[in-house]
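Annex B. Sample input.
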Amino acid sequence: MTTRLSPDLLRASPEQGPPAGCPEASADYRLTPHYRFQSTLDRFLSQIHPGHDAYISELYAEEVATALAKWTAALCQNPLSLSPIVELLSPELAATSLRPEAEQCLRNKASLQVWRGQFQGQSTLQRETFVQELGLFFGSSWRLRTAQFEVASITIKQEVPLIFSTRIRYDLVGPTSGEDTEERIGFWDLEWERRTSGSLAIRTWRSGEETRCRVAGRVFEDVTTWALGGNT
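Annex B, continued. Sample output.
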């Protein structure tokens, strides 16, 4: 039989009081073990965090991921904000249009429509024009419920000054009007540079392939409460 001690038994007696220089008797005390031999995993655990090994690109990817998280928060609020994106655009930005040059219809039914878009390869838009493109892409009638961005790949082009490119995959979902919902899945190729201030800036923005679908009415219904509401 195993006897388990109550945490109260490990605390100092109220009549005795805490020893001099020790915290109050009500504080929780924890045991930190020290092993005689080092674990074989210790040398690997120290390299989990980005920047602690030879793959310095992980540190840059983590920095970009932090910026993308701000994009998600700003785009899903009401009203949405483009500020976290615009503030990262370099004054010398060269970009392609966010609107596809051509779209191929993959499915055209009353309840579901799907298109695949192709974009021009030349970067002809400057910063101010591209900011207007962002406003049109994230139109006021599109209320985003989901805005996911992921660093799919990263390539360092030069270290000094720092320039690297990333492929950003995105998944954007939200209602457009009434009960209609639109989703866009695709990728952007972004090239980044390090400013003299130390922050990152986007110097080129190229749109890649995009799949856009529109659903009329509801497709899925949350039945959790109906199915499990009686469980206690």
